[in-house]
Amino acid sequence: MTSPTLVQFAYFAAAVLFILGLKSMSSPLTARRGIVWAGVGMVLATLATFLTPGMHNFALILLAIVIGGGLAWWSGKIVKMTDMPQMVAIYNGMGGGAAAAIAAVEFARGEAHGELSLALAVLGALIGAISFAGSCVAFAKLQGIMNKAFRLPAQNIVNIALATATVVVGLSIVLVATPTPAQVVVFFVLALLLGVVVTLPIGGADMPVVISLFNAFTGLAVGFEGFVLGIPALIIAGIVVGAAGTLLTQLMARAMNRPITNILFTPISGEAQGGAAVEGTMKELSGLDAASLMRFAQKVIIVPGYGMAVAGAQHKVWEMAKLLEEAGVEVKFAIHPVAGRMPGHMNVLLAEAGVPYEQIFDLEEINAEFPLADVALVIGANDVVNPVARTDKSSPIYGMPILDVDKAQNVIVIKRGKGAGYSGIENALFYQDNCRMLYGSAQQAVADVIQNIKTMG
Amino acid sequence: MDGYIALYIFMLAAFTGYEVISRVPVILHTPLMSGSNFVHGVVLVGAMVVLGRAETPLEMTIGFFAVLLGAANAAGGYVVTERMLGMFTAGKKKEKGDAK
User: Fold this and answer.
1) Of A183, A324, A358, A444, which sits 20 to 30 A from A418 (CA to CA)?
2) What is the CATH number of the domain that holds A358?
């Protein structure tokens, strides 16, 4: 085979492997095989690219791959499982940045011929730059570098103005066909700014949806640049991810009963407007009381949330669950679709700790069981168990499906302090008669409970 | 590339993406998001082609960053996904932890 044919064949094989890999990743039994296949596809495509005719700068290419790939490989290896969401965000942002940079070079060379090609280059650059800037902000927020939600005055007007300006400059690039450097620079500055401004006010439970949205964005950007470069493998991989990511984003948004437009344009702000004040007091209980309540219960449902992830308490929680099971208690885990900072974040952490799949239940599967449970143990979850989502029409989270923890006989909430949740909304659950608070980090509190259960034999 | 052929590719790829993950259990949402994050790391290939054809210092600089970012996307995406999925297999071996 001549080298162009070989390159094309490798790209084709890579595209097939990507699709098969993603397909395998959608079932727990074949998931591991899936990522390996996709990985083989990536290696094939990368190696083949070196054979593309007319290429030079090989030393630079190798250097960039070694530095970029090496740093990412290393950071991905050492990062803690609980910090995974922000790592996915930042790697995704880099992909978006790469797509935008490809477009920038095309502009500099004036190589994107024809209006369609130029329009797609601009569109890919726009989406890629937004994804890059937005993902960096998302990373900073989740990593705790940047604090919570930050809302500009007249946020929506600023968003719309910026978006309009970016699109206008983008259009001007398409129309003149050979853009001036100034045009291109202004375009990218605006697009990056747009990404930052759109992401800044978003916080709390909306974060995972936004990361997923940016993931879909990067996919689309890659697909569009693939068209500009004339590499079908990029188009296929990019658009497949774009479509899959869009669907995933919709699934998540639906799980929270928050349309995407609401998430982007009316974020739940720090000082949530609306929502009636909650009456009553929070009642504390000791680790010993918590231990005896659960040790002598028949059925305990554990609801993990972000607090468990932050404290890295999943191993302790499973240790406690096993102790309870040995004592004859039926233990189940209930996971809200958006618990933690990514959908399925809790599933990953519990799997890491060794909790078998059969004991982990989705919202729809478990909600009917709460009234039958003696104890519902909430570990560092807040908004996803707030009953005002069912009852209070004026609350910003009204209509979001929640775990009906409040219907259990007893509720124990492990929580670090008395403050409101990430969304800033008071939780009516904590003031209910059947609810008791166990203060402390998830790690300490569960360790305390474990000690006490052990003394009961 | 022929515009219409590309349009067909766009359309078919979009349906494929939609189909491929339409029946995914919640448990795999995060790994799948991470996995698809890895797949769009193929942008590395496009970045390599761009840098490989770059002539001026400006093109070479931007192209260099494109490859750098693309490689980071691919490598990071792979490692993170692999680690997440590795946990699911580890999770199958029950009773690994000690139950003292």
Assistant:
1) A324
2) 3.40.50.1220
